[in-house]
Specification:
heterodimer; A: mainly beta; six-stranded mixed sheet; four-stranded antiparallel sheet; B: about 110 residues; mainly beta; 9 strands; globular
């Protein structure tokens, strides 16, 4: 059974850097074609894809946020970390990570999500 | 503004069949497969349909997906109260990013 769980601060101040960790079990990020993606969903709004990292360390970023995002993996710890710089109140959202078993494929399952509020 | 276009709302009575549309372009739906996610209130998204029309294990066959050209559709037959949720379509874009629809809120009357 594959599970993922997001962790990180619930509150960050404007201009600060957000670091979120996705800890997973039931699969290995060293297995061919496996990937982990990050998404977010502002309160009452739609889902937005942020970034994706594959087993071979190939990384993809949302073009609109690319300059602010960094995604890394620690295969030995079964973790994927997303760093987002220069946080703004508009970045207030629930952040999700999710598993993908094939390149450019669907995401399944998803973590429970972590609400991050950006406020001074 | 979402890249894929969905109606913001849909509704039906128990037992009815409801269809939700998703419109894209040649760079996403036109060349890549479509996935659908169901998000029940207060919960994380769940994969409902993948590769245009495939159901993951455990998803009832009341849910079906289709794709034609640059559009896709999700159909829910025999509507049930527990189907009340937000539904999102998604696809990879040739610009190498995952794009989503704005979501459709389904109400069971």
């Amino acid at each position: 059974q594959i599970t993922l769980k997001e962790s990180g601060p619930t509150l960050v101040k404007p201009t600060q850097t957000l670091t979120l960790t996705c800890t997973f079990s039931g699969f290995s990020l060293s297995t061919s074609e496996v990937g982990v993606g990050w998404f977010r969903q502002p309160p009452g709004k739609a889902l937005e894809w942020l970034a994706l990292i594959y087993w071979n360390d190939d990384k993809r970023y949302s073009p609109s946020l690319k300059m602010r995002l960094t995604i890394t993996k620690d295969t030995s710890k079964n973790q994927v970390v997303l760093v987002m710089t220069n946080m703004d109140p508009v970045d207030t959202a629930t952040y999700y990570c999710a598993h993908s078993n094939t390149i450019f494929a669907e995401f399944d399952p998803w973590g429970q999500g972590a609400l991050v509020t950006v406020s001074s | 503004q979402s890249v894929l276009t969905q109606p913001p709302s849909a509704s039906g009575t128990p037992g009815q069949r409801v269809t939700i549309s998703c419109s894209g372009s040649s760079s996403n739906i036109g060349t890549n497969t479509v996935n659908w996610y169901q998000q029940l209130p207060g919960t994380a998204p769940k994969l409902l349909i993948y590769s245009n029309n495939q159901r993951p294990s455990g998803v009832p066959d009341r849910f079906s997906g289709s794709k034609s050209g640059t559009s896709a559709s999700l159909a829910i037959g025999g509507l049930q109260s527990e189907d009340e949720a937000d539904y999102y379509c998604a696809a990879w874009d040739d610009s190498l990013m995952e794009v989503f629809g704005g979501g459709t809120k389904l109400t069971v009357l």
